């Protein structure tokens, strides 16, 4: 076949383009629309190079990738925290104040706070932090890698605030700041009393231990993301805890002898595990609050609560003292609610427990006398009386899913203070046992 002769499958008989290397089957030759082959190859290769550059820029470039991951995953970004440097800010603060507040504010930073006793003469706070590498020099020498600490110490109150920048610039690429911190609150071992302790953090793990010899006026712990754990005796006249995403556990909480116990714990997406002891109350000092109050609530977590008398309540109660009535509320939307309450003589219990989708198990001292009401919309309720009990329950309603009655002495003798128990669930079972 001669040059520029019609192809076998080229019925049009049009000649091939002079630079065509594709030969038979080149439809551009057939239609007469063939472009310069070198130009097409160049454009194809340039397009591939641009695509590869974009892939490297957005995926493999470490600076840019850390910025995207930071913005996309916020506080859970572990990739960013793999490339940190030591923070050069203050590392130790000593104070004579006996009221202390720690506040971890905005920013992509996570860490832990530990509260414990140590061989120090005054309350001491140690701070260790690691932060994103900073090559942006526009802020000057005082710009300490995006992490900022503010301390206010006046009139016996000290507050420490730790915060970060929301966004920073590194080598011309947008990148969100991230960091990690460790804070220790060291209280002198010689202390027997401390004022108000407040610890709040956006992303924080809190652990308090070795505090059994110190009595706090109040303690407040708040964590948006992270667990709160007290692994020793905590003596405080008031305890308030809020956790959004995390659990709260307390090995042993009590108030000083003579003061009523006041505890409130709320967890949205975590569980609550609390062991508490109630002491006797000095009636002269606590006329406005004649009882102990414990309020526990969760949205999707479980509640495990044990409430028992403190050692002082087992002895002989003086005339100006009272065991104090117990007002207990344990409410969970989707979790299990488990409570165990021990009572001493002449102590009333007012228990309110509820759950929408969880099981309710309540074990109460057989010393309890008073009203009982158990209800379940779609399940069953059960009551188990103690063996050889001196009390009896008279029911006004005794159905599979609803029981209501009154627990009192069999022989009609002198009863202790009367209380009430109300337990309800929509889907889960409701169980009440006397022990």
Automatic annotation (TrEMBL):
Record has Membrane as a keyword: yes
Membrane-crossing segments per the record: 42-60
Keyword terms, alphabetized: Membrane, Transmembrane, Transmembrane helix
Superkingdom of the organism of origin: Eukaryota
Name this protein carries in UniProt: Adhesin domain-containing protein
Naturally occurring in which organism (per UniProt): Lunasporangiospora selenospora
């Amino acid at each position: 076949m001669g040059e520029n002769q019609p192809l076998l499958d080229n019925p049009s008989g049009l000649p091939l383009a002079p630079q065509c290397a594709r030969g038979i089957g080149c439809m551009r030759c057939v239609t007469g629309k063939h472009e310069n082959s070198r130009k097409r190859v160049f454009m194809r290769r340039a397009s591939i190079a641009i695509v590869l550059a974009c892939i490297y820029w957005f995926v493999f470039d470490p600076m840019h990738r850390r910025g995207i991951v930071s913005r996309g995953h916020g506080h859970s970004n572990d990739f960013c925290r793999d490339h940190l440097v030591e923070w050069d800010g203050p590392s130790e603060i000593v104070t004579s104040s006996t009221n202390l507040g720690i506040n971890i504010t905005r920013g992509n930073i996570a860490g832990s706070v530990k509260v414990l006793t140590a061989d120090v003469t005054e309350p001491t706070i140690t701070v260790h932090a690691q932060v994103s590498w900073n090559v942006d020099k526009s802020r000057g020498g005082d710009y300490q890698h995006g992490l900022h600490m503010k301390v206010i110490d006046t009139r016996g109150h000290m507050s420490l605030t730790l915060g970060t920048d929301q966004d920073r610039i590194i080598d011309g690429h947008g990148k969100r700041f991230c960091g990690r911190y460790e804070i220790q609150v060291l209280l002198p071992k010689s202390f027997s009393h401390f004022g108000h302790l407040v610890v709040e953090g956006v992303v924080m793990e809190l652990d308090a231990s070795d505090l059994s010899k110190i009595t706090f006026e109040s303690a407040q712990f708040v964590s948006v993301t992270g667990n709160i754990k007290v692994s020793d005796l905590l003596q405080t006249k008031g305890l308030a805890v809020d956790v959004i995403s995390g659990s709260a556990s307390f090995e042993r909480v009590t108030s000083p002898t003579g003061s009523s116990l006041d505890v409130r714990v709320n967890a949205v997406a975590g569980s609550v595990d609390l062991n508490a002891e109630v002491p006797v109350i000095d009636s002269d000092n606590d006329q406005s609050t004649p009882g102990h109050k414990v309020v526990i609530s969760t949205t999707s977590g479980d509640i495990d609560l044990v409430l028992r008398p403190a050692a002082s309540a087992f002895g002989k109660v003086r005339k100006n003292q009272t065991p104090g009535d117990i007002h207990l509320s344990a409410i969970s939307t989707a979790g299990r609610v488990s409570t165990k309450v021990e009572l001493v003589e002449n102590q009333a219990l007012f228990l309110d427990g509820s759950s929408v989708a969880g099981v309710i198990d309540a074990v109460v001292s057989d010393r309890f006398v008073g009203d009982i009401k158990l209800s379940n919309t779609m399940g069953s309720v059960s009551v188990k009386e103690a063996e050889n009990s001196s009390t009896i329950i008279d029911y006004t309603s005794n159905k599979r899913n609803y029981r209501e009655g009154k627990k009192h002495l069999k022989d009609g003798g002198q009863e202790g203070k009367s209380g009430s128990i109300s337990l309800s669930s929509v889907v889960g079972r409701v169980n009440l046992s006397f022990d």
